[in-house]
Amino acid sequence: MTLFTASDGIARCGWCAASEDYIAYHDREWGFPVADDRRLFEKLSLEGFQSGLSWRTILMKRENFRAAFAGFDFDRIADFNESDVERLLHDAGIVRHRGKIEAVINNARRAQDLVHEAGSLAAYVCGFEPRGDIPFLASTSPASVAMSKDLKKRGWKFVGPTTVHAFMQAMGLINDHAEGCAIRAEAERARTAFQPPAG
């Protein structure tokens, strides 16, 4: 993967060169482990919305998504009904795709079930952390295939292996910062220090 050097003189993964928002996301979020269930649910939901679109499109709308989906509090979203779907379909600040909107509501209910069983989304997700080497910037992995298959079996939607792999990269289950990227070592230290929550 190519690197780029920003005006601050720091070398970073080439994909974040598109905008200052991308750089901030790359430096502070992407590849860093997360234990907060709401953030995990948000990211998995937004990865589903990204399907067929660019992550930049979603990132630019993230605050609108948060406002529209109750801060991605899945206990609140689980109570959404058809009137909420119609409201969201008329919200110009988000991606207005009925299937993806309905998937988030469905997945919120499935998340409640999963938390009841596993203790937390974080405990469940960390159980799929890849073991061994994964090809750099692969689009899927055996771990993402396994997690996707398990989520689908539990009734989740818009959680294909590619979507789940992107989620794993973003949430620090995989460190896909390029060799030579100044943030790679920082993300790896955070991953090493991270204590996965008990189930």
Automatic annotation (TrEMBL):
One Pfam family named in its UniProt record: Adenine_glyco
InterPro entries: Adenine_glyco (IPR005019), DNA-3mA_glycosylase (IPR052891), DNA_glycosylase (IPR011257)
Coiled coil location: none
Origin: domain of life: Bacteria
Protein name (record): DNA-3-methyladenine glycosylase I
Species assigned in the record: Sphingopyxis soli
